[in-house]
Amino acid sequence: MGYTVAIVGATGAVGTQMIKMLEESTLPIDQVRYLSSSRSAGKVLAFKEQEVTVELTTEDSFEGVDIALFSAGGSTSAKFAPYAVKAGAVVVDNTSHFRQHPDVPLVVPEVNAHALENHNGIVSCPNCSTIQMMVALEPIRQKWGLSRIIVSTYQAVSGAGQSAINETQDQLKQVLNEGINPKDVTANILPSGGDKKHYPIAFNALPQIDVFTDNDYTYEEMKMTKETKKIMEDDNIAVSATCVRIPVLSAHSESVYIETKEVAPIAAVKEAIVAFPGAVLEDDPSQQIYPQAVNAVGSRDTFVGRIRKDLDQENGIHMWVVSDNLLKGAAWNSVQIAETLHEKGLVRPTTALKFELN
Ligand code: 25A
Ligand code: L14
Questions:
Q1: Cα–ligand 1 centroid distance for 15 (angstroms)
Q2: In the chain, what are the domains?
């Protein structure tokens, strides 16, 4: 007997990749249910050879569902995930809404699959930028410890949804086909759909992802700080991030500086990365080999290169980390969590409900 798996946000940029990851998954699946808002309800999408009609998400959508994957924004998860748990499903939530909840495991399977053991019906998938950084740094942390991380990201627009992809393509066309100055293109979404002002992304770099918090870091930057501490189970790791949007459609790149507790020889760091599941070393300056966004698109792996010692700090290392933000950063990590729950016998109803129904 297989599972009934629901995808909330099935028609979105992440949801469509979730469908693909489920089609290729080892999970025993009897049935899929595609859920969305009223905008997409009634559309027909494929699952392997089947046609599946997208349904409107309601409080009653989850009867008979064993696993519910959510990626339709935080407010949708806040509203519907508790009903999915009540109906007996395990929720894997790709939004930030439940990530810091003390009763919710925040999981990158290669790093902290053990945190799934005492789930209460909701498991959170971390932020895309955090996930790929964890895959690159966990093999180093295991051997030499980690005291500090300073990261600058170069993030693709697809993280902000299909509408941000469309906006980027429209702006590039306005500049290249119509000769419009990049300063004057139409901008309605980026840097953040939820903020007051909108700026061009075509031929630009925007140092704002999500809205600002009151310490002058953005939420995206603070997510990288808080999620790293939760996943690595160490509040003493210092993490400061600068998150930047660039006009790339998919795959995030990151310049990561770390300080290890013990001095780590670079050759041994490279060996540790090669041995770590989900991480791929691409590092040969003599042959101009290093990770690139265009090459990472479509892969579940996280690519690591440009690994080198800091020029002054004995325990300091720099590196370049690239992964497909829609796959390991979202859809694949979510489906991988579902596969891990299955392997551990943890796909089961939750009896003591910890999440309020609204
Ligand atoms: O992004 P999109 O293209 O706009 O689509 C989101 C999906 O969510 C559905 C929605 O149906 C669509 O299937 N959806 C939206 N509101 C819903 C509701 N109340 C809902 N489903 C059930 N109940 P849709 O056909 O109306 O829209 C399709 C796509 O629209 C996006 N979207 C729609 N409404 C949204 C919404 N996104 C956020 N909040 C809403 N209220 C969504 O596209 C959906 O697929 P997306 O997948 O491209 O991005 C959805 C949001 O997810 C966040 N995100 C992206 N990457 C990550 C991520 N969050 C966490 N981790 C990531 N790695 C983005 O913030 C993006 O806004
Ligand atoms: O919190 O805009 O997981 O690129 C992931 C991608 C929020 C926004 C999250 C983006 C997000 C985001």
A1: 8
A2: 3-125+331-343 (3.40.50.720), 130-325 (3.30.360.10)
The arrangement of strands across the sheet holding 146-155 comes to 238-245, 146-155, 252-260, 316-323, 302-309, 279-281
Burial of 55 per CB tally in 10 Å (0-12, 13-18, 19+): middle
The pLDDT value recorded for residue 50 is 98
pLDDT band at 235 (very low <50, low <70, confident <90, very high): very high
97 catalytic? Reply is no
Number of Cβ atoms within 10 Å of the Cβ of 320? 21
Buried b vs exposed e over 275-297: b needs ≥16 C-beta within 10 Å?
Answer: ebebbbbbbeeeeeebbebeebb
- The answer to whether the CB of 171 falls within 8 A of the CB of 182 is yes
Ligand 1, from 162, 218, 335, 337: best to mutate by most atoms within 8 Å of Cβ?
162
pLDDT at 345 over 90: yes
Query: Could you tell me the CA-to-CA distances from 298 to 158, 171, 216 in Å, in that order?
Result: 13, 24, 34
Ligand 1 near 31 CB (within 6 A): no
What is the predicted pLDDT for the residue at 195?
A: 98
pLDDT tens for each residue of 60-79 = 999 999 999 999 999 999 99
pLDDT of residue 1: 84
